[in-house]
Amino acid sequence: MPPEIVFALISMGCLGTSDFLYKWGQRWDLRGGPFMLLQNFAYMPTAFALTFIRSELAWSPGLWLGLLNGALAFTAFLFILLAMRRGEAISLIPIVRLNFAITALLTIAFIGEEVNPLKGIALFLAGAAVLSGGVGVIAGGRDRRSLALAAGAMCLFGFIGLFIKLGLAMGANPAAMTLAQSVGVFCMALPYAVFSGDSMPRRGGALWVPLACGILTSSSYVSLSVGFTHGDAVVIAPIAQLSFVLTGLLAIVFLGERLSTRRALGVACAVFSILIFAAA
User: Under DSSP, is residue 47 helix (H, G, I), strand (E, B) or coil?
Assistant: First the structure.
């Protein structure tokens, strides 16, 4: 199996599990400020360890984009956490994780990655999947805020994918990009946690869920960045974002969420989109 596919699959597994924990952890009334700070307490050491192990502790101008990605990632993950309070993971996570369509369009437009009819079909299916996942949420007025937050996170993650690719092209190492991103997240998470006024949890799920998400998210971004060094973002990013299928399956099994015909159609469109991207 090509190395870029292997790293994309690792990223997919980490993302899918982390997204599920965002929803599952709501039983502990996760607060945005403490959650984001605790997540980064695990995210940053994991990124540093992976950077050290891969011998990639080297400065590059591309790392400035990693810092920018940190601010974007903080906002995107906060959007997900807030969206999960009232919305169902099986409806919202597919919207978030279809950010690969944004990344694909941006890399085609700004980096010149190849576009062909197959990739056009894949992007169309991605749009259909987003609409299938969001129609029910739009119909329920109380969930429109959750839909808006999920769509916002999708756009932010799409730009993060572009900036990772640009940073690597500027000479940054994959793991170092993730480490720089963790610094950017910390610069946002610390003041947010302080001004939120929420107390830091000392035990239970409110403590370990964000720590677990930090480890998973950091590992996912390192895997994604390494994959980008082996292949095109327009192929690798869609495979990694298949994570929402894993999230949906976990939500069905452990949270009792239902898989309606409309949602199944949305998942099918997304899966076909990713498969076409991988073959294009």
Answer: helix
Inter-residue contact 4 to 230 (CB < 8 Å): yes
Euclidean distance between CA atoms 248 and 88, whole angstroms: 9
Cα–Cα dist 121/151, whole Å? 21
| Cα 183 from Cα 170, distance rounded (Å) | 19
Structural contact between residues 231 and 9, judged by C-beta atoms closer than 8 angstroms: no
Q: Cα separation of 241 and 274, whole Å? A: 8
Nearest to 19 by CA among 124, 86, 94: 94
135/38: higher pLDDT: 38
Can you tell me the distance from the alpha carbon of 101 to that of 90, in angstroms, rounded to the nearest whole number? 19
pLDDT number for residue 234: 77
CA angle 208, 43, 222 (to 5 degrees): 130
Distance CA 34, CA 206 (A): 9
CA distance 241 to 100: 7
Rounded-to-integer distance, Cα 104 and Cα 96, Å: 15
Looking up tokens 């756009």 gives 155
Sorted by sequence, the CB contacts under 8 Å of residue 148 that are 6+ apart come out as none
Q: What is the per-residue pLDDT for 140?
A: 53
Helix then strand then coil, in percent of the chain rounded to 5, is 80, 0, 20
Contact 170, 62 (CB under 8 A): yes
77's tokens = 């993950």
Tell me if 185 sits within 8 A of 76, measured CB to CB.
no
226-240 residue pLDDT tens: 999 888 887 888 888
Q: Decide if 228 contacts 165 (C-beta within 8 A).
A: yes
pLDDT digits (tens, 9 = 90+) for 162-198: 999 999 999 999 999 999 999 999 999 999 998 888 8
